[in-house]
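Collaboration report, partner site 2.

Our partner group contributed sequences for two proteins of shared interest, and the home lab folded both. The records are reproduced in the order in which they were received, starting with the first partner submission.
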Amino acid sequence: MPSEQLPNAESDPGPAVERRSLLRLGALMAAAGTAALVPAPVTHAATRGQGTDTVTTTYRGRAPQGNDQWAYVAFDVPTGVQRISVSTSHDASAGILDLGIFGPSGFRGWSGGERSGFTLSAADATPGYVPAPVEPGGWSVILGPMVGATGGMAWQVDVTLHFGDPLPRTPYDILPTAVAGRGPGWYRGDLHLHSVHSDGKRTVDEIVAAARQEGLHFIATSDHNTSSTGVTWHGNIPADLLVINAEEVTTRHGHWLAVGLPQGEWVDWRYGPADKGVFDGHARRVHSLGGLTIAAHPLTPAAGSFWEFGLDRVDALEVWNGPWTLDDAANIAAWHVMLCLGKRVAAVGNSDAHSPSDAVGRPHNVVRAANLSTPAVLDALRKGRSYAVESAAVTVDFTARAGGAVAGPGEELPLSFFDAVDMTLNVTGAPDSVATLYTEWGIMAATCIDGSGKGQLRWRGWGKASLFARAEVRRLKPASTTLDQLVAITNPVWFYSAKLPPYDVERRALFHTERRPDGSWSSMRPLPGAASGAASFTGVQSAAAGMADGSVVVLGIAPDNALWLTVVRGAVTLQPWKRVAGPDGRSDFTVREADIAAFPDGTCQIVVTAMDGTTFHQQRRADGTLPGFRALPGLTAKSRWGATKVSITAMPDGSAQLLSFGTDGAMYHCARGRDGTWTPWGRLAGYNGAPTFSGPALAITGMPDGSSQVLAIGLDGIVYHQQRRPDGSWTGFRPPRGVTSATMGASAVGIAGTADGSAQVVAVGLDGRVWHNVRRPDGSWTPFSQIPGPNGSDAFAAGQVRITALRDGSTHVTAISAG
């Protein structure tokens, strides 16, 4: 056992440890129905000072290697004890020792790894611990060892009982539930703040002062796994700022905010995903108390922080936590997928401020509430009637209009299918940024905001062609781990019909059409579904590869993001739909993006991005068998490539070229040789000298001369094209001419090279219709012309489109209908 000196119980132990953990005992443990109480493996206990007013017992033990473990040092408190002091030491080279205590009535305090000691009494307590009378009976110090050393970790606990006359109890003030005189309006607030009661460095008074300075109207004090913050307000409650009591429930399988708890209420955290129904029970209890549940920084990869309980089992996701990082970008990507599946989980942004160098309210939420009260604010947040901004300088006004109806974030706009929807985004306080509008089809419109910080974005869409619309504002300047910075993000406006049930993604069907060698088109027709007798395959995305034998291999992504494959020739389905298994044969594999390329030897290569962004590849053999997916190599040794969009093409020499938008938003290119080796990923330059190219859609195709051509949509919503020469050099992006304008606005694109050296291009225009163009071998373009819909009509609205070419000069187009 190391002989380090034990710190004073009242003092800061030194360097703070970023760990948040908590446990509780007795009736609370029984109610939780989780892990059994595990006595600490005490190897030695010695008591000194017996018969005096100060009795100290020393306990020594050793914890085994592991993180998800808890142990309890039990001791008895006789009548007459007025104060308990605890100090600890441990082998710091072996790991971290979390610390807390429970009394006969349950929870009395927690400090995790932030402190090595504490004291508590009726009159006072170390921050993180609840001041209240010391009850006689059974008490326990809780230890949360996180041990990395294979040999375990030695620890020591000193428990001191102080006898004496009873100490006066200090009552706490009740937080008001409303700020008087504040009616309906937009209110700014930060829901994730830490004080000295956990691992924060500010007092609550300093947090209040910082919130006022930022211009906030409400805050939530959410210290880790303790109720002590709420019971120590005394004469310092602000009259002009709504303070909401909260707790960051810090399990070792993800953190969540329980916002709106009554003062003194504590939420347990000793459970994991394997403890069926336990998290749901705690969430229901928080709801019964009028509170809100929020998954905090859910995709942070740090140990214990990554959310493992299911993103759709909370009221909201904290998609933006403190300064913008790659973790936040992943949060937004995952949240967007949930929106595309119709899951109405709200998004919030909070500062998670700990130290004075962390800016309170950056970011924060702007909430449209009936008044400035805890019930009204939490109700608005639960419904998503809010947006998040980087600072109080930023204001966003995002509305959807159809006829006389108007809706904002978190609200529904009644629509029939062909009603026109006018979306307007007004932004102030966001100089030199880009505003974008998203639906489930990706970016539908974008505009640049100049140095004044004021900008407006307008877009007209078709009613139920989209499930929702939301907006973002980003600054195209690097942050710590990204190439951009988030300035603002709104919750979605939802679209539904007043006469029909809410929007049903199952109505989207996979259609197929053929452009004959003479330039004429067959009628757009749905592909039969995967289920027996189903008239059409319902899905959210498709891809196609024209084979040497004249057949077309088609991929379809179903509404549940399962990947399916079939083979067609003309109007005939040659092979029924078959679900494609994931890595290691996983039958539940789901994907966000997929593409396929055909090779002259009868094989195909498939590339997909999983829901977490990991990119996988496999080769479909000539006999149709699938050997299984393998992850693509990343930028560094042993890393995996992550992407948001991906496209693949076959080259004449048997190699393949891949194009993707990485998780940093930039466009990258690499090649797979005939021998299966991969070249390093190279980042492409943007249009007109920009260092990178970012956007919502891309496609690549190989040409007979060994060159390849890229088609992509930029953040401005404009279609761009460029060529990669056979020597590997690039021509640079240029925008082809639009239907009636100098550029082509689109939401989806596809490109396919043909044997004569031309490239066939398809795009879903801003009108929702599918358009076709040809880039001739000399580099000139034909005008865009509309592809006819079913039965030769032109009234076919699509959300996603792909194209592939066959040796006979025909091309085949797959498209997902917009509803």
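Second partner submission, folded after the first:
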Amino acid sequence: MNPSSCHARLFRRHLIASAAACTLLGMSAHVAAQSTDSESADADADYQLQEITISGTAEEQLKQAVGVSTITKEDIERRPPANDLSELIRTMPGVNLSGASSTGAFGNQRQIDLRGMGPENTLILIDGKPVQSRNSSMMRRSGERNTRGDSNWVPANAVERIEVLRGPAAARYGSGAAGGVINIITKRPTKKLEGEVTTYFRLPEDGDEGDTRRAGFNLSGPLSETFSFRVYGNVAKTDRDAVDINAGHGSQAAPAAGREGVRNRDINGLLRWDLTPDQVLEFEAGVSRQGNIYSGERFVQADLNPIQRQMADQGAETNRMLRRNVGITHRGRWGRWGDSRLIYQYEETDRRYVNEGAAGSVEGGFTDPITWNNSNLKNHFLNGELYMPLTTGAVGHMLTVGAEYRREQLRDPGSQNANPPAGFERSGNPEISADTWALYLEDNIALTDALVVTPGLRLDHHDKFGNNWSPSLNATYQLNEQWAINGGVARAFKAPNLYQSNPDYWYYTRGNGCPIGVDRNCYIQGNPDLDPETSINKEIGLSWTNHQGWDATVAVFDNDYKNKIVADMPFAPPPVGDGYNRYQWFNAGKAKVRGLEGSLNVPLLGEHGETLKLFNNLTVMDQNKNKDTGQPLSIIPKYTLNSTLDWRINRAWSAELSATLYGKQKPRTIGARGQELTTEGRGSYALFGLRANWQISRNLRAGFGVENLADKRLYRTANAEAAGAATYNEPGRAYYITLTGSF
């Protein structure tokens, strides 16, 4: 994998492209309109079956920042994830996997965490369109959701590339991108009929760990001179761990649950219509299903109740999600007015989950007999952008003007299982919705051949939380042929989610769920008077390349984070003065996230290291805590070092040896009741992998490898509210083989 060298090459190419764009932009619109017919024909031919790429737009410029990484389809082929793309994304700088909170509940449901800002501040996109299915899962009192997140809706065999944007570069995407953005780009229609089928099998050495099997296909090509298509499908299953895999590794009598399994079914189709050489229309529709394989996970109780034990032994499904999406995209060229893109997407997620007991009937436990709840989440997304070339004197601009609308509508009767205390009423309507409108401007300005600045301003209006301004300023300066400086600052925000802001959402807890000294029932109510979470994200970086295969980057990031929305009992304001222990979600104080990212890529054999090359990236977290309480925002390693030795043996064979070193992980020290916790942290550890790929023929390739070569296993030794840093399982040695046939 070669993200950093890719950055350097793209950066250099972009500077050249920007200089060329400035020259063109300096011409009058009339001259631009008088291009020769042959030039137009060449441009039109290039446009037929590719996405529009506009050299010099603000979006493209921001993707050259040192806080941006790219995973290519070749990277995925050489290092295939077992099932979820997060397994590969976690190897990028600034990326880790963490739980939804620092309590450890649902600890094995780890999601992408960018720069320690937490999974809820990571925005997942598919082809530039937001994916929000995880929002259909109820948010519990300390921020937990029983969800795997949204990184597994596209199978690995359908991905063209993955863009990982961190820090100021992500602020342009609006609410939920304070940590960063993961943009999963799918494969596009092709000029001729092409297809491939991929199979994958992963077998762990320990029989108590779940294996993985998946098969997927891609098919694309032309239907006529103006129509083309792409369709992909996927069937996958990762089995659960044994129910008692963590036995003997915890202080409690009953062991914590191992990793849940997951069943995936995906089908997606895209139809492209080239209306004219300058106008393209795409229609897309897809259906995906994810169902868990229950392994005994529970929220707070020490042991499984009988019905949970029965369902765990059966490997039953207790949480299934069905996602349906349809979308229309138009891309156009309008001569001297510039280019445009217009996207509409409708996304609907049905989540069916086992009903869980409230306080007094084993909080979070399954009821007997089993009953089911259904939540339904509908999301509308409309986005339009116009890219206009302008000139001011001798200075060239590429102005981006954008508008966006989002509507989120949730119906979850299960969120109203807990009745409010006497004297309180609620509407009885389990539906809540939110509308957000946004306008934004970005200007990519080439002040000189060496200096490109990108100011931006975004205004979001939330129908319940008012206006949020997100200004940004990014700049790139090319010191010389080898050295460049990149920096940026931006304000980002996240609106309260539909559970946190819903006054009809009541969460009921008692005993271990209430603060110390409170010996009766406690209630947490949604709060419509919350303020959005905000952060000021700053970044400055330096990149170097000597054009002989050596390249390096270093970046310092600093985020000032405030108004984090929590319902953590010991730090909550006193109960509302109504005679009951009624708490609400509230805005906490300030927090600081600060760290360093770097990369160093070293050629060892061959020209520019084409035969043997060493790739390295490092992330160091200096601070990640709430300033008022000293508690961590998320439990992530102090440092993460990823190294890969890439050997291109010959045209048919390649191999790689990878190593990942994780630093110490420190847990929270205060429990949800305000008690001091004595649970353990997690020490540093390393994981190694060995892989080989064989291009058997033009249309057949195979891959095989060993993951966790040294068999470093980590067991989950803590559970529920007393959890420390040891809240997840790290699986042991496993072997995989994959085979792909194409035509």
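Feedback sent to the partner group on the second submission included the following. DSSP finds seven helices and 34 strands in the chain. The longest helix spans residues 3-26.
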